Amino acid sequence: MMGLVSESDGMTHSLECVLADAYPAWLEAQTEPVRAWLQNTGFEPKPRRYLHLPGETARVLIIVERFDDMWALAELPYRLPAGTYRLEGVNETLQQRALALGWALGAYRYTRYKSADRAPAELLLEDAALRKAIEREAGAIADVRDLINTPTQDMGPAQLAQAAAELAAAHNAGYSCTVGTTLLSHNYPMIHAVGRASAHPPRLIDLRWGDEAHPRLTLVGKGVCFDTGGLDLKTASGMRLMKKDMGGAAHALGLARRIMDENLPVRLRVLIPAVENSVAGDAYRPGDVIRTRKGLSVEVDNTDAEGRLVLCDALAAAAEEEPELIVDFATLTGAARVALGTELPAFFTHSDALATELAEAGQAQQDPVWRLPLFESYRAMLDSPIADLVNSAASGFGGAITAALFLDAFVPKSVDWLHLDLMAWNQRARPGRPRGGEAMGLRAVYALLERRYGTA
C-alpha cells in the first residue's frame, strides 16, 4: 500500500504544487472566483498548506517550500479524499521522485494486527520505471518499519532469521544460520552467552549475495529481539519499547534489499546476531569474563550493555574476510540519544573521507546523520584489571563513544568501518514518518554505496 499508480481508469484530480515565493504570481493568474475563494477561506500560503479549489475540474493547491522537499506531500495520502491525483507544476524527474517518495512513505501503515481505516489517496506517475524505482526504495523502508513494529512474540530470533531467509530466497542469495550451542563450536561465544538464558535459542544469521569478483561489503545488524537488561534488569518503562532493540538488524536487512534490488556490483555479506537478552538460571552475570571470537577477554560490568557483546563476535567474523567496507547498525546506547536526540543517528568512523561522504549523502537524501568522535583518550575507560576489556565504562559520560571504542577493538584499522548508533523509532508522528519503527540513515548509507560502487 504505497499510494502510487501509473494509470488511472477514472477521473484524476489536479495537485498543483506552488512555491511559497511564487504564490503571489500564481494567484494573479487565477480566475476571480478562485481568488475570492482563497480570500474568503483565509488561506495562508505557507509550506505544506493545501486547499481544494472551486471550478469545473478537480483541483487541489499545495504550497511547497522547495520542489525537492520529500516531505512536502507526505501528509496528503490520508488527508485528501480517496482518489487519484496528478502532480502539476513539477517537471524535473529528481523533484518528482523526491515528492513521490515522501507520498509513498506517508501512505505506510502497519496493519499486521489492526487494519488501516481507509486506503490512501493515489499519486499518478505516468513514468512506470520511476514509479517502480520509488516503490523499491519505499518497500525497503516499509520492511524496516514492519520488522521493528512487530512485537517479539512474532519477531523473536527464529522469526528474524526467517525474514532473512525469505529475503535471501527472493534474491537468489546464499543463507545459513548457526543456532544454539552450535555457536560455541563455531566460535561465537559472546552471541551464545548473551542469548543462552532465553527459551528462544540465539543464532547468527549469515546472508551472502553477489559476484565474488566484486568489492566485498559486509553489513552487520544488532538483532536483540528483546532486551530485559538481563540480570541488570531494566525498569518497566525502560523495557517497554525493547521490541525495537533489533532495529539494527532490520536496517541491515532493509539495506541488503536495496542493494540486491538495484543489483549493486558488490559481494555482499550480512551478519546478524539474533538473541533475546533474558533472565534465567543460566543467564550471564555481572563480573563474568568471556573470551570473544577474536580472542580478547571481556569482563562483564553490565548485562544491559549486551548489544556490543553480540556485535563484537559478528564484527570479528566480518573482519576475517577483509572486506573493503563494514557497516554496522545498532540501537546501541541511550547516550547517543542524549547527545543528539532521537531523530538524528550518530555515526563513527576513523576515515574522514568516509565521514564526509556519508554526511553529504545524508544531507542530499534528507536523511541526516551526525558524526561523533572515536576519542582515543576514552579508551582507558574500558580497561579491566582482570580482562582485556570491560563491556561498560564505570563513568556515565561519553557512553556512545566508549561503546563505539569497544566495537573498534574488533575491527582492524586496515578495513573501512562505519558504525551507526540509532533510535530506529519515531517518538512523534511527522509527515511521512508515523510514530513507531523507522529507517534512519539507511537512505544516506545506500546513497554513499551507490556513489562508491555505481550500479551494474
CATH topology of the largest domain: Aminopeptidase
CATH superfamily of the largest domain: Zn peptidases
- Which range best describes the helical content: under 10%, 10-25%, 25-40%, 40-55%, 55-70% or over 70%? 25-40%
Number of helices: 15
Structure description:
This protein has 456 residues and is an alpha/beta fold. It has two domains: 4-107, Leucine Aminopeptidase, subunit E, domain 1 (3-Layer(aba) Sandwich); 139-453, Aminopeptidase. The protein is built from 15 helices and 20 strands. It has helices spanning 23-28, 32-41, 76-79, 93-106, 128-149, 157-170, 182-185, 189-195, 236-239, 247-261, 307-320, 334-340, 352-364, 399-408, 442-453, and strands at 4-5, 12-19, 50-53, 59-64, 84-88, 122-124, 174-179, 203-209, 216-221, 223-227, 267-277, 289-291, 297-299, 325-330, 346-348, 370-371, 389-390, 416-421, 425-426, 436-437. Strands 7, 8, 9, 10, 11, 14, 15, 16 and 18 form a nine-stranded mixed sheet that branches. A six-stranded mixed sheet has the order 1-6-5-2-4-3, with helices on both faces. A three-stranded mixed sheet has the order 12-13-17, covered by helices on one side. Helix 13 links the parallel strand 15 (346-348) and strand 16 (370-371). Helix 11 packs parallel to helix 14 (399-408). The protein is elongated and about 85 Å long. The mean pLDDT is 97. Residues 302-309 form the Cytosol aminopeptidase domain. One of its GO terms (biological process) is proteolysis. This is Leucyl aminopeptidase. Belongs to the peptidase M17 family. It comes from Acidihalobacter ferrooxydans.
